[in-house]
Amino acid sequence: MKTLKLLFGFALSATLLTSCYTEELHINDNGPAISLNQLLQSYELWYVDINATQGYGETPFLQIAFTLSFDNGRLFANNNLVGFGSQGNGFGVQIGNYDAYNMILDVNHVIDGFDSFDVYQIDNNTIELYNPFSDTSYFLHGYQRATFDYDFVFYDNIHYFLQEYDAWEKVYTSNFGAINEFDNENYLQFLSGGNDSTFRSSQDVNIYNPDNIYWDYTGIYGVGDVSGNMYLKTLTLDYDFFDNEFFELSVINDGTISLYHPNSGTVYEFEGRGYIAYYRNSDTQGKITEKSEQPKKRKQKTPKVNNPRENTRIGS
Questions:
Q1: Contacts of 198 (CB under 8 A, 6+ apart)
Q2: What is d(CA 34, CA 31) in angstroms, rounded to the nearest whole number?
Q3: Which pLDDT score is estimated for 291?
Q4: What is the phi-psi region of residue 38: left when phi exceeds 0, alpha when psi lies from -120 to 50, beta otherwise?
Q5: pTM to 2 decimals?
Q6: Average pLDDT over residues 281-296
């Protein structure tokens, strides 16, 4: 995550998903003014607007990506919020290769293999990737790195940031604040996949390997917004055996979070242990892992709708 850009961040956050650039690119039925390759490379980052998706299918690598970048046949993606804006100079990691021709985009993904899309230009900085095999369209908005609000995307999706470590270890408890039940909790885990809202907690101490943590409790968690403050969130942990634990959540850096407990006045700090680099269900080298949890994917918050796009591919 880049250093916070407060003044710029507030301005761009309001227009991140709707703004259009003044640069004009025209592709029409009489023949493209520029090639598809030129169109894809005209913007350094393509933000995947997951909530605009049409259709009932899914393309796995698009379902987890925040941004895509096309670089002379190499396909890059920001799949993680840890390092967002700095990893790969803002492009993320290479997730495969592509070929673009005749408004068709062929992708060879490092995990998922081959996929193909029909590409439609919607407006000056929006393209549609239509997957004829799943009858699903993803919509991408183009930005340059210098004017892309990494901070807004990070905080708008902080739910996923919590899932990018195998565990969060408590490393600090303030010497002020009333004694409370949460003082005994030393590890937290936020699970990806499933209902996308499951957490686990443990009272273990000094566990080197997160895989060896004994999880005492499993429950449901929720992350909420704070009106007027994009950089402050709320975190609620639903413990059945006593009242819910409510915190104000702030991010110190890519590996450390602060939890302020208003009921007791105590501040806790947790550090991430066991960073999870997402290709899909893979480790940092792109090899498929043996994890039992379902892989992370971004959830579409809007109702799924029928895709009006017609499949023009013969035999698809």
A1: 190, 191, 218, 219, 220, 221
A2: 9
A3: 38
A4: alpha
A5: 0.83
A6: 42
